[in-house]
Design brief:
320 residues, 14 helices, three-stranded mixed beta sheet, 12% strand, five-stranded mixed beta sheet
Length: 320
């Protein structure tokens, strides 16, 4: 397993030289191989966060892709079979990402007896049958005076964007990964604004806040520039421009977990936290920057800790 994570000095320099997106500030090679092998046989961890992302993020998908490609080249298989198998694996992981986000949302908005606050995609489809060109989002949460709509995306941003190497990559990722999802969020919120009774069985309430949230599995490099591009593109497309709709929130699954911690600790509601971020001086930055600024350190909820212990045990056994 370590051969997937570690390289010696000469091999790592070669990876850096071969990086097509490398610039002065590129960390791609170190993210792929976050452990340096010394001539003495010792190992140096370049960055603990890189190791965590390398093992538990989406980067292992490349290991699977390379392994399948090598297998296809070394054995007699029909053309395209390895790609088909890889698509199946990717689809499985993406589906699990959506399921995990729903687990987090269930922790944020647990059912209390007959009082239900979270509805998933199947329930939304049953309440609002799909029409041509109009889809529903993955989940909605009802707050006392608000609806928060969630759409999950497991699409990875292009490395050219992460490395800040291509303005065109930024525009492509905004169009593919943000605008299309924002349309689904808008379609769902529009239906709830008109009539929420097909979903809740209750009459429509006035003075609601309608908050769209896009949760991206690997996060999105938000900042003043990328935020401005997103807002301008949404304006040009006429998406989420109604005055009753709040600002589109874009966050990674890790930030959603931070929200789980804050909400389950009590004192702040989900929609209040999102509104506070949108009106803060850090509104153009990632949500976690805002939460860390106001919260400092935190201890993950027991639900998250149990999952981490299980994952760490599996990794430890694999390395051992």
């Amino acid at each position: 397993m370590l051969r997937l994570l570690a390289r010696d000095r000469h091999a790592l320099l070669q990876v850096i030289d071969d990086d097509g997106f490398a610039g002065t500030w590129s960390f791609n090679a170190f993210e792929r191989f976050p452990i340096l092998l010394l001539d003495s046989g010792e190992m140096v961890v370049i960055d603990p966060e890189f190791v965590m992302n390398r093992v538990y993020g989406w980067l292992p998908m490349w290991d699977i892709a390379f392994a399948m490609k090598s297998l296809a080249e070394s054995v007699d298989v029909e053309p395209g079979n390895s790609d088909l198998e890889l698509d199946t694996v990717v689809g499985y992981l993406r589906k699990n990402t959506e399921r995990y986000v729903l687990e987090v949302l269930e922790a944020i908005a647990p059912r209390r007896g007959i009082f239900k606050r979270l509805w998933g995609e199947d329930e939304l489809i049953a309440a609002y049958p799909r029409k041509k060109g109009r889809q529903v989002c993955d989940a909605v949460i009802e707050e006392a005076d608000a609806w928060v709509a969630f759409e999950v995306s497991s699409r990875q941003v292009q490395r050219k964007l992460v490395a800040a190497a291509s303005p065109q990559a930024l525009l492509e990722d905004v169009v593919r990964g943000v605008v299309a999802k924002a349309k689904q969020l808008e379609a769902t919120l529009s239906r709830l604004r008109r009539d929420e009774s097909p979903l809740t069985g209750r009459p429509r309430m006035d003075n609601r806040r309608f908050v769209p949230v896009l949760a991206i599995s690997e996060g999105f490099p938000l900042g003043p520039v990328t935020r401005a591009v997103i807002d301008e593109r949404l304006r040009l497309e006429g998406v989420l421009q109604d005055s009753e709709l709040r600002l589109l929130h874009i966050m990674g699954v890790d930030e959603l977990e931070l929200l789980e911690y804050v909400v389950t600790m009590g004192g702040r509601t989900l929609v209040d936290l999102l509104d506070a971020h949108a009106s803060s001086s850090l509104a153009q930055m990632n949500l976690k920057d805002f939460l860390h600024e106001h919260l400092g350190g935190h201890h993950p909820p027991d639900r998250q800790m149990a999952l981490w212990r299980k994952a760490l045990d599996t990794t430890t056994a694999a390395i051992a």
